[in-house]
Amino acid sequence: VKEVADLSLVSSACDVVSAAYASTKESHPCLRSVCDAAEKGVQSVTEATASCVLATLEPHVAAVSEYAAKGLDKLGEKLPLLPKPVEQILSDTKELLSSRVAEVKEAVSS
């Protein structure tokens, strides 16, 4: 999960969602109360079940983690843009589109 969360695209998406959530909570007092209550409930349930569930599932989690890491490595090989920073992906995309448009313009004018 940490490796996926560390991918720049995933991290950026999480940041956007988090900012929108925080802004919504700040802007709407009624929603803030509901969200705060939900957050406390989730936190309580998580704390109560985490230790016993993790102890029981630890061997399985380790196996799944190993397979997931291998899958992420393969995905990274097939999609080399995943580990790149979002700014670089946008820059590369703009550059690629610009060059393609220039090629089309040149072909049309010829």
Helices and strands, in N-to-C order?
HHHH
The percent range for strand residues is under 5%
Query: Helix amount, in percent?
Result: over 70%
Gyration radius, rounded: 22 Å
**N- to C-terminal distance:** 52 Å
Total count of domains: 2
How confident overall, as mean pLDDT? 84
Described by the principal axes of the CA atoms, the overall outline is: flat
Extended strand count: 0
Largest sheet descriptor: none
| Oligomer status | single chain
Uncertain segments: none
Given helix and strand content, the structural type is mainly alpha
Annotation field: number of helices = 4
Main location: other
Family: Belongs to the perilipin family.
InterPro entries: Perilipin (IPR004279)
Protein name: PLIN3 protein
Could you characterize the architecture of this molecule?
Its main location: other. It comes from Vidua chalybeata (Village indigobird). One of its GO terms (biological process) is lipid storage. With 110 residues, the protein is mainly alpha-helical. The chain folds into 2 domains: 1-79, no CATH class; 81-109. It is 90% helix and 0% strand. The protein has 4 helices and no strands. It has helices at residues 2-6, 8-27, 29-78, 86-109.
How do the helices and strands line up, and which of them pair or pack?
Layout: H1 2-6, H2 8-27, H3 29-78, H4 86-109
